[in-house]
């Protein structure tokens, strides 16, 4: 009896194990089928797009102007395109309403850090969540408070600007490539806001460094740049000294050291402590927080260093590119140039100064600046966001982990919103009576959309207005006799125009 009992128990156990194994296999099978079905459905719901090549994706087919390539793809794939750029699955937003919906979604608030990895710590632009909100809020508020209507920085800007004007006056209208002088002047002006002083004549090396850093950071970076998208490619270029990437790495390190030195001076030298600049504003905030029990914050000298670099990059190249385009556009549209000059002289006179906070007084001039941003779209593709969750839009799903970029050039040249977009028309940004500006029309996003728009926007507008108005008041701008304005671009995160000599003929004012 005992043996039979034992035998029966053994059979029971075997049966139970066999049954459980069968059930587990059935469950695993149906789970697999379910997941495959869900994957297939998700693939079916993803935005359409072209099939690229292994490893490089669609990069080889983008051409010199990727924004125009994406725009032309709209005819086949629609307003939302999915494409592999290198190994990165990227969503391209090609239309204003779609872009507004996606970029306003909480799932698109994160920034993908990969594109800026080579710059190291560059402040809040690579932060997400509470740290990003905290640092962005303080940084933008401090920069605005220091710049908007403040005599200290305004004086530094005008000193730098008048040095540039004297240089142009000395040319006596002869053809001259203003590019280098303009970039040097703008960089000095922006640095003066951040470090509280103009670079001295004995600091030419730092001015050269600022120009080289700007070049290294902007022209060798971008949402369609292979070295920003293919893992390890930038490192290969640096090691084998390809296309100047080794020099760019060295320049980036040197500029970061320059910022560290300036922070140290502000901490250890009394004359520097008394300057109303961004470094002192931030150091004061660090000091205030250190006296409280607040532990959950991101204020640090390392973050300050990154925010300085971020503000410099956010304003410097954008302003330089914008002014380069505007001066070239004035050569093409001479009637617009004359209207700007007439308004400035009538409202401001020879010695009056255009102020950003008083831009309503010169609506036509500011309309030219607004239209200049649309026409040039000098940031053609926005910096990438990273989807932190699945984002539904127009019947599609943008899957979690996707990179997201907006075709800002496409938004600004969409005939649905802009009549004859290839034409330069400041009147688009004026009310019917011409007395007020229309500042935020649909499909207009020169500094991107949503809460992660460009942090240097206010500084950029101030500098563009200052330089443009003073130059237009004093000079008639033209191309050399027999030459037409050229609009060949140098691609990068910000597109620049290839250099061309211009003539600055001084007016009798």
UniProtKB/TrEMBL annotation:
Protein family: Belongs to the cytochrome P450 family.
This protein is called what? Cytochrome P450
Main location as per UniProt: endoplasmic reticulum
Q: Name one Pfam family in it.
A: p450
Q: Does Coiled coil count among this protein's keywords?
A: no
The residues that the entry says bind heme are 454
Alphabetical GO biological process terms:
organic acid metabolic process; xenobiotic metabolic process
Record's function text: May be involved in the metabolism of insect hormones and in the breakdown of synthetic insecticides.
State the species of origin. Answer: Larinioides sclopetarius
Subcellular location as annotated? Endoplasmic reticulum membrane; Microsome membrane
Cell wall biogenesis/degradation as a keyword?
no
What does the record give as the organism's lineage? Eukaryota, Metazoa, Ecdysozoa, Arthropoda, Chelicerata
Q: What cofactors does this protein use?
A: heme
Gene Ontology MF annotations: heme binding; iron ion binding; oxidoreductase activity, acting on paired donors, with incorporation or reduction of molecular oxygen, reduced flavin or flavoprotein as one donor, and incorporation of one atom of oxygen
**Topology of this chain in the membrane:** Peripheral membrane protein
Q: Which domain of life is it from?
A: Eukaryota
Check the record and name the InterPro entries matching this protein: Cyt_P450, Cyt_P450_CS, Cyt_P450_E_grp-I, Cyt_P450_sf, Cytochrome_P450_fam2
